[in-house]
Amino acid sequence: MQKTGAAQPPRVIRYKRFGFGKGIRKYWMLYAMMILPLAQYFIFRYCPLYGVQVAFKDYNLFKGIGGSKWAGFKYFQEAFATQQFWDALRNTVWLNLLDLIFGFPMPIILAIMLYEMRSVKVKRVYQTLMYLPHFLSWIIIGGIVTKMFGSRGIVNNVIRSMGGSTVDFMTNSANWVVMYVATGVWQGAGWGTIIYLAAISGVNTELYEAAEVDGCGRFKRIWHITLPGIMPTIIVMLILQLGRMVGIGFERPYVMMNNNVRDVSEVISTFVYTRGILNQRYPLSTAVDLFGSVINMIFLFSANRITRALGGEGGLW
Amino acid sequence: MVTAVKSPKAGRGVKGRRYLGSEILFITILTVFVLLCVIPVIHVVALSLSDRQSVLSGQVTLFPRGWDINAYRSVFSDATMQRSMIFSIILTVVYTMMAMVCSILIAYPLSRSYLPGKKILMVIILIPMYFTGGTIPNYLWIKDLHLIDSPWSLVLPILTSTYNIIIMRNFFSSISPSLEESARLDGCNDFQILLRIVLPLSTASLATVALFYAVARWNSYADVRYYINNQSYFTLQMKLYQVVFNSTDTSVAMVEGGANAVLPDTIRSAAIVFSTVPILIVYPFLQKYFVQGVMIGAVKE
What angle do the packed helices A154-161 and A138-149 form, to 10 degrees? Predict the structure, then answer.
């Protein structure tokens, strides 16, 4: 902070002396530019927050959000009383936990290996190919996965040709969970390396040279220099992921699920979609959604607090 | 302008000999992962180009067998598919242009370190990253705005992305301030500086962010599912969902009844490839930009 202050002092001090009013007059054009995007933020990010109160109201289509009667925690109680809600909550947390265990370390490992690779050309080609799955839509990925792992798909063809019997990858609950997690890793791990590669390239190279002189081997160097060097980034990414433990995207579970595995694949987002938008039970589904968001916030804040308490230099704020 | 990251200098001195074991291990693991990334895509392309017998007998692996492009003929000649393709292209182009204008207009002022109130404005755009209304409040709001079944419901709510704005802002602020000063001495105002100096110097980050916006719009499915019931505003992804996941989809049934019956599996593969092609065409050209663009955005964060 001090450094940037020293680099360009006259500007910063000047507006501070004249105050905000002068600032507006001097930079009116910059403020004018922002009107359109800020209006978009206000209309489409902040205004919908007004509708969160639907969770506490007997929503009436004709009276609108403001005119409907307050219902207290009635819809939360209703949600908590149904088994489907607890199933959706359990599945959401369980799938996210598996994503965390298997999906989180993958980009870190891949990024370190990419960085250590000697041939720049091969590295570039590998990076390009690794990012590819990130640019495919979940519909396409879902289509590819269900086709390849279906009973007539290539994987089962290979298994049968080697003398095995057909495996029901997509229709058996336990197998489906494995497929869900593996698909997530497949889609996101390559792309996830970018942020860690950026962090690794920020590690002081003199440290590597010093380690070399001290006779550190490759793995020791990775363990003692690279990993500690990127730890702040890892911690920030971890906190962000912990802050999403009860939230889950809609598209990935939606395209991968089928009726045979509904017991493990119904998650909060699909619950909200079927109850809310399809069956128009707005208060109930808003309550479920809000409940998830609140738990996410608690996770996010406590993860951040714990990191800071442990003396980590990371942390979000 | 190096897109791939430099390797540590250590270990390079003795060419090839040092750490040979771990080098082989790393390359093997990375190669396996890269192959896993690519093989499924190649397999689907192969399926879409193979003939009936080869697909039925499960002989198709990585190369098409018994070359047959009838599946593509069916997909292309399907009127609803064509309409979705055209609608998706128009939607993506219009959306990307509008989103870019919107993002530049806020990223540039936020990149000026001297702008009073910059911190508050940053907080205003960061809060929605962590706290959103949720599916139903958003849906009810779109409904109140009478945007249900309007293509604008697929454009206006997502015109800004805080993540992309931050990438852009970081890139803008990495441009040397002396250029701005000299332009100001020449009598340029803020808008002219943005237009004539900052934007021409930021092609890498602009290309990156434009790619992110375009891909996000092209691939999104949830908002179409939520807000659109009118078939004429179905995007390609929505259409694709029907073809790939609903065996009862009418257009596929029609094709199946045709004279040279094409297998539904082949049709589905062709539809998947058909909707991926636009991304695969632009991807290699933009790839060298986006790594650089994201890196700069990420490092400065």
Answer: 20
* Pairwise CA distance, residues A2 & A101, whole Å: 39
Question: For residue B295, what pLDDT is reported?
Answer: 63
| B272–A123 CB contact, under 8 Å | no
Closest by Cα among B47, B81, B88, B83 to B65: B47
- Residue spans in chain B of domains classed CATH 1.10.3720.10: 72-301
CA–CA distance, B291 with B301 (Å, rounded to integer): 15
Confidence of residue B21 (pLDDT cuts 50, 70, 90): confident
Which residue in chain B is spatially nearest to A16 when comparing CA positions?
Answer: B116
CA distance A295 to A247: 9
SS3 per residue for A20-70: HHHHHHHCHHHHHHHHHHHHHHHHHHHHHHHHHHHHHEEEECCCHHHHEEE
Q: Which of A24, A114, A211 sits opposite B10 (nearest CB)?
A: A211
Q: What is the pTM of this model?
A: 0.85
Best A41, A131, A201, A252 member to test B by mutation, with max B CBs in 10 Å, is A41
Within 70-99 of B, beta carbons closer than 8 Å to A belong to none
Give, rounded to a whole angstrom, the gap between the first and last alpha carbons of chain B: 20
Q: Which CATH superfamily is domain B72-301 in?
A: MetI-like (1.10.3720.10)
The reply to whether CATH 3.40.50.300 applies to domain A74-309 is: no
- Contact (CB<8Å) A37/B19: no
Instruction: Tell me which residues of chain B, numbers 111 to 170, contact chain A at a CB-CB cutoff of 8 Å.
Output: 112-117, 121, 124-125, 128, 130-141, 144, 156-160
Q: Is residue A83 within 8 angstroms of chain B, CB to CB? A: no
Note whether A40 contacts B: Cβ–Cβ < 8 A.
yes
Q: What is the ipTM of this complex?
A: 0.84
Nearest to B106 among A37, A117, A297 (CB): A37
CA distance A106 to A74: 43
Amino acid at B27: I
Question: Chain A residue with minimal CA distance to B42?
Answer: A144
Domain spans, chain A: 2-60, 74-309
Q: Is pLDDT above 80 for B224?
A: yes
Q: Residue B74 in contact with residue B262, Cβ under 8 Å? A: yes
Q: Which amino acid is at B9?
A: K
Cα A90 from Cα A86, distance rounded (Å)? 6
Give the tens place of pLDDT for each residue, A196-240. 888 888 888 888 888 878 877 888 888 888 898 888 888 888 888
Q: Are B137 and A52 in contact (CB under 8 A)?
A: yes
B101 or B178, which is more confident: B101
